[in-house]
Amino acid sequence: MATVELKGLVKTFGKTEVLHGIDLAVEDGEFIVFVGPSGCGKSTTLRLLAGLDEVSSGEILIGGNVVNNLEPKERNIAMVFQNYAIYPHMSVRKNIGFGLRTSKMSKADKEKRIDEVAELLGMTDLLDRKPGQLSGGQRQRVAIGRAMVRDPLVFLFDEPLSNLDAQLRTQMRLEIKKLHQDVGTTIVFVTHDQVEAMTLADRIVIMKDGHIQQVGTPAEVYQKPVNMFVAQFIGAPSMNMLPGKKSSAGIVLNAGPTISESLNSDASGIMVGIRPNDLTPALDNEAALFEGRVKIIEPLGPETLVYVELGQHEVLATVPGRTPPKIGDTIRLKAPQEEIHFFNADTGAAIL
Amino acid sequence: MNWYRKLSIKQKQVVWAWSFLAIPVLFYTVIRFYPTFGAIVLSFQNWNLLGAKTWAGLENYQRLVADPVFWKVFSNTFIYLLLGTPISLVISFVIAYHLDKVNFLHATIRAMYFLPFMTSAVAMAWLWRWFYQPVPIGLFNNILSSLGISQFPFLNSTFWALPSVLAPAVWAGLGFQIIIFMAGLRSIPQSYYEAAQIDGVGPWTILREITLPLLKPTIVFLVVFSSIGFLRIFDQVFNMTTNDPGGPLNSTKPLVLMIYDTAFNAFNMGYAAAQTVVLFTILLIVSLLQLYVMRER
């Protein structure tokens, strides 16, 4: 186990700079998830950490030591790849044991270690099979086994669940979380799926265009997004954004209503963000924030998503699954004051 | 076309399949199978192309077994095979393996290696023949003499003539083998190598444990393909030794050249056919043997 530290990490490919100075400190035993849209630099960061690509400038520290110029094998890390990278011509036992090739352990100790790992992953009876005879989830487990067998300081996961179907993904997610609780090794995990990030991480690192947008616990990034990108990226369905202006009475929305809130900001334009989950039907005796016409409904079972037309704008709201409105109905919507987020329309930054 | 409409989908597919297959099937029957069968029959007969065919029984085969030239040619053919295939495969793999990692002028270098494959074997053989000539004509011997080294009897030595003829044959096939090897190398996912890098195994282990096993289908294909090529070697030999085809003293003569001589110089068609049957059998056995040895376990 070890801490990981990134200091002013920059990566350029030719003339293109893809990482613009990444600073991050990962604690010992922490489960860190990098999340962001494709091309945001999350995988590049992981590859730099693994030593598969060379750092252009900045420093990487593992366990307090600068590893910039160390070969991947000298960094004592293990990596699980998106396509598993398990060798089709080797048995599961050989695949898991491949990581022990260069270790100075005796042959018997190596076998013992492979058996231990196989047992931990519940695949003792699969050891003599070839990868071709395994299901996707089992192959994923072999890849994790190969990473575990060397007992590395840090585990790196590069979108390991992307190739699995939805059901297996949920199951493997749980297994990875359990594994982390059991072995307690520092994990750096890369994904483009915000649900994966929320469910797995101790802390989430949200990236965009080679910059870190926000670092925080899942609750922090959900409840207190620092900018519009984080607000809309985390949480599904995505947060509603409505433009408005500051006035003496509060924030006047272009869509109609005024929200009485005195913001400590001199921004000319304000974006108001409300999560669909917080935008619910108002009872008859309650004050409503919006009133609009239902355009589309999407039943999900426990709840129904409703697209509501507000003049030229549209919001997504949630209603209980048993009493959905009909298309064309007029619906009154409310939102708790503390769940309304405000952003500077020009910079995108949150106004707190 | 009323009958066609009444057919089931399956039957319609069969009709279409056979109408497309008809021409190749006809072609193979007339151009391939019938002559093959004819050659086998002919190997039990005597025929000089003009006169009547007379039944000879096993006479041609008995003569073949008793013919010292045949045994010399037989061993030559296998030397071409046993030297040519491994040497060409190793060289082409080494080139492909390194070319795969080169980005600078990649396409140009690849094209340069492929060029000999497109060149006429006759032109190439004559060029190499010039290389091999004694001073003051031949390139190699001129270089040797300018370095003060004595002449090398490339095509004039009964020992060195065969390797000298083999060299351009190997060279000519390299381009093709390199392209196939590179396609094979490209099909191995990069992450396999990255995973091995993180596991910290050396380049030699990666080559032996990952690259070569995953290239096995490519290697099987190339071994079979190039073996068949070397067993049928003819044009290089014929063109580089035109004054005395297969010489000196039959030291470079392969089976195909012997067949050609027997058929079209001696007009002994029955005897030539017997030799053809032997070559056919060898090709068959070698191919099957290789497929068996290299089969997926």
The proportion of strand residues of chain B reads under 5%
What is the fold-level CATH name, i.e. the topology of the largest domain in chain A? Rossmann fold
Q: CA-to-CA gap between the ends of chain B?
A: 51 Å
- The shape of chain A, in one word, is elongated
Topology:
The complex is a heterodimer of chains A (352) and B (297).
Chain A: E1 4-13, E2 16-26, E3 31-35, H1 42-50, E4 57-62, E5 65-66, E6 77-80, H2 92-97, H3 107-120, H4 136-148, E7 154-158, H5 166-183, E8 186-191, H6 194-200, E9 203-208, E10 211-216, H7 218-223, H8 228-233, E11 240-247, E12 250-253, E13 258-259, E14 269-274, E15 280-281, E16 290-299, E17 303-310, E18 313-320, E19 330-334, E20 340-344
Parallel strand pairs in A: 3-8, 3-9, 6-7, 7-8
Antiparallel strand pairs in A: 1-2, 1-4, 4-5, 9-10, 11-12, 11-14, 12-13, 14-20, 15-19, 16-17, 16-19, 17-18
Chain B: H1 2-5, H2 9-42, E1 45-46, E2 54-55, H3 59-66, H4 68-99, H5 106-118, H6 121-132, H7 139-146, H8 161-186, H9 190-199, H10 203-214, H11 216-231, H12 235-240, H13 255-264, H14 269-293
Antiparallel strand pairs in B: 1-2
Helix pairs in contact in B: 2-14, 3-14, 4-8, 4-11, 5-8, 6-8, 8-11, 11-14, 13-14
